[in-house]
Write a structure and sequence with these properties.
This protein is of the alpha/beta class and 254 residues long. It has eleven helices and nine strands. A hairpin with a 2-residue loop joins β8 and β9. The site of ligand 9D3 has 16 residues, from β5.
């Protein structure tokens, strides 16, 4: 897979691209990433990439010409899928990441300032993507989010140990809690079952904890996912325990 990134801040990328996952993928030839400076495609002496908005109002708008020339020249006859990182885009999720990972060539366009001239969107953008409903200063961090999440979906990029974890996310539930040495931290012990060596019991405990975490922190995920009979039973256990532990139930018992 090839990914081209276009930005006015190319210097933000090298440290990120050198991280182990992306670095290894690039080394092994599974992934080719190139970062391009938008200013290289400007035509005026000052290499300007922005101008005042028609219609007035605050802030600056990125001009169309450098973007249109950059996309055309970087594409060079190929037809990359062109994504503009923008607050107006559809919110990124696991499904979109996997869909983008099937494309042989991507071009990620990082906006800054108040946004880019709409003619860029109209003429050289296939899709706008946002990473969430909060304000960032530009598309560079979102582009890194895309590069990393997409890379993890390319076969061979993530090692076997990691892919097990990955599967559990696709499973649609939150992960169970994790523990490592030492056994006691600030008075808190590692749950006994994890020291038991009883792998069936450990597996059941983890599935129950996954369900509990999802119920408490992300109930929206549970509503979108069908539960099998074992999971329904575990969920019923959790619900009755939660009831038994609640202050209301304790008060009612007395
Ligand atoms: C404070 C300016 N906002 C006025 C309503 C609009 C605005 C313009 C430009 C907000 C953010 C930005 C810059 N952000 C991005 O380019 C961006 C982004 C984001 O801010 N949040 C989540 N995903 C993305 S992808 C690109």
């Amino acid at each position: 897979m090839r990914i081209d990134v276009v930005t006015i801040f190319p210097e933000l990328f090298p440290a990120f691209l050198a991280t182990s996952l992306i670095g290894r993928a690039a080394q092994s030839g599974l992934l080719e990433i190139e970062v391009h400076d938008l200013r290289h495609y400007t035509k005026d002496r000052h290499r300007s990439v922005d101008d005042e908005p028609y219609g007035g109002g605050g802030g600056m708008v990125m001009t169309a010409q450098p973007w249109i020339d950059a996309v055309e020249q970087i594409s060079g006859g190929a037809t990359p899928w062109r994504v503009l990182l923008s607050p107006q885009g559809r919110r990124l999720d696991d499904r979109k990441v996997r869909e983008l990972a099937t494309r042989p060539q991507l071009m990620l366009l990082c906006g800054r300032y108040e946004g880019v001239d709409e003619r860029v969107v109209e003429h050289v953008v296939d899709e706008e993507i946002s990473v969430g409903d909060y304000v960032l200063s530009g598309g560079e961090l979102p582009a890194m989010v895309l590069v990393e999440s997409i890379s993890r979906q390319i076969p061979g990029v993530v090692g076997l140990a990691d892919s097990v974890v990955q599967d559990s996310f696709r499973d649609g539930l939150l992960d169970h809690p994790h523990y490592t040495r030492p056994r006691n931290v600030a008075g808190s012990e590692v749950p006994r079952v994890l020291l038991s060596g009883d792998h069936a019991a450990i597996d059941r405990w983890r599935r129950k904890q996954s369900l509990r975490a999802t119920l408490e922190k992300r109930p929206d995920l549970l509503h979108r996912r069908p539960l099998d009979l074992g999971e329904e039973a575990l969920l019923e256990e959790i619900r009755s325990e939660a009831g038994a532990e609640s202050e209301v139930m304790k008060a009612e018992e007395t």
